[in-house]
Amino acid sequence: MALALAYFIIIIYSISLLLIFFYSLAQLNLLINYLSQKRQNETAPKFNLLDPKEIPFVTIQLPVYNEEYVMDRLLENIAKIEYPKSKLEIQVLDDSTDDTVISTAASVAKLRETGLDIQHITRTDRSGFKAGALKEGLEIAKGEFIAIFDADFLPASDWLKKTVIYFKDAEIGVVQTRWGHLNRDYSTLTKIQAFALDAHFTLEQVGRNSKGHFINFNGTAGIWRKECIIDAGNWEGDTLTEDLDLSYRAQLKNWKFKYLENVETPAELPVVISAARSQQFRWNKGGAENFRKTVWSVISAKNIPFKTKFHGVMHLLNSSMFLCVFLVALLSIPSLYIKNMYAHLDWVFSLLSLFTVSTIILFVCYWFTYKSIQGSGFNNFVDYIRIFFTFFSVALGFSLHNTIAVLEGHMGKRSEFVRTPKFNISTIKQSWKGNKYLAKKLSPNMILEFALMLYFMFGMYSAIPLNDFGLFPFHFMLFLGFGFVFFKSLTSRA
Description:
Spore Coat Polysaccharide Biosynthesis Protein SpsA, Chain A, membrane, transferase, 2 domains, transmembrane helix, globular, glycosyltransferase activity
């Protein structure tokens, strides 16, 4: 019985390690694509906005929900967009249930007096959440192209001039820009969030887009061709990541996406771990929901090549990697004892080297994305080493929380769209504690995260009697990661 259990643990452990390894190889291929793209010249056809006949009509959609702290900032910024007023419409899609509905209506009325074509659109039924609001606004939108910004995004005044021009190519369905970070240096939490997002918006988006593989509209800071949205089946609210869902449906219908790494759209990162938790949960559960909904359509599609299918499947499996990482972490301690109890199974644990190789691959990939934004040089490389291992540890600490999200997504458990609270703060001197949208209750997962912190402390101790320190660094990072998530969750409350 004990030997059978040992074999079962080893099989699950090994499969998880192999999946992580395949994921890291896919990332390495994206790095190669990314570096080769850097050497290519931009030759895409573009609208000539100096010719009035070529200036298209654009609708800007601002989906908002209870955004007291950032609403004024958002409207003031959008009003500065440089574009002919006769060719621009702004829709404030307001699903708010608090007093901001009144203040937003007053702000919109003032902007309308300046000559802006801006409408305040409210719903009594929030069905479909963000997707439902976007879909309802689309029905009356005047624009041929639809730009979308979440409440915490602050596009530059020339943003439209840099993006809408690429729709000269009739096959382009979406133009997506890179997210910037208004409060990157606020805390360790914001630094690691920025680090992870930078990797996605450089390595992954450029690496896929440069070879014609599927990418995703990121829910904001991008612009759609209205015809593309309709042709792909319009917005649907049956997943928590409606942006990824519509992106894949559009690309399966042969629409092309254009990613602009050099156009940065700054936004605010969550400064409190409860807000980061809700955002991570939505993204990871939504990713799993979309895998469940879309993967067979990708695999069976006859109009896309095998390599695009491979990267599409790996893209849809992104969030599921947290499940693999969590299983590897959880089973690493019993595996350590199995290795020392059953000498004939010792060869199996050479698979552990795959995790080391995977980590090295990610270390190399993330360095290229880090230096593309932060710059190279020795000092930056030292900073990079520090932030990489901090990020890696905290990502491990989030693995339980994100695994639960992934499992719910794969099992089809429905949950409502929980928006991320916004703060409108950028320096440590500003306080977030008065934010009325923050969750007041502690996450029940905290108990398990504290238990896991102790579990991996035991894993570090186990290295001493077993005289096997191969997993000690891994268990140390897990201990730090779960400790960080637990104590930050305990102390960072409104």
